[in-house]
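Following up on my earlier thread - several people asked me to post the actual chain instead of describing it. Fair enough. Here it is, all 221 residues.
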Amino acid sequence: MLHLEHFRAESTRVNMECGALLLYILFSIYSVGARQKPQIRAESNCEKITRSPFYVPEFIPGKWRVYYTWGIKLNACTYVVLRSVSTQTQTHYAKKFEGHMEEEIDWYSSELKITTGLGEQLLMFAEGDGRGRFRAVETNRFFEVSPEVPVSLTKYAIKSYHFFRYLVLLNCENFRGYLMARPADRFVTTKEIVNLIDTILPGENGYFACIPELNEVYKQQ
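Reply from S.P.:
Thanks for posting it. Predicted structure:
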């Protein structure tokens, strides 16, 4: 009888441990999936907007006003400035990041420097296929990380619409991005912006910037 009770107790303990292990495995799978899903979604959307070549570097630099965002909500009108990269700038970052990069890169192949009203600073390296795919060093984050932690490159995509009247900048790893236009372009219209949103990434909801009153209107459609 004692042997039977001991067997039952041992069997119950084993079942509980197996159940706990199964729950741990399921939770781990769910957690990994939850972490991977945003990155898969981000990459998928970047792939959508860069299927065909477009990149003409001389039309990119300048000041752009953000009219719509994905993955982030802005409380005020925000601007993004794109500049061509000078040799002096390339040399500066080559020295600053020496020994800190996760992989070796040719700093003198960087093409664009991007600064946003949110304090982001990006040094962009074109992937070379003309589709507007880039890898970027987030230069403003350098002092936020430990010197022992290598700095990695982040994937981005840039795409123009309506003959460079509009520009989209997307982070391809955490799905955050902007739809922008030149501040002084009098041909930019609210109707055109709304139509572009539905065309560029249908089904992906975001937020209007500079025209925040449209957030409630668009939400009701």
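DSSP finds four helices and nine strands in the chain. That should answer part of your original question.
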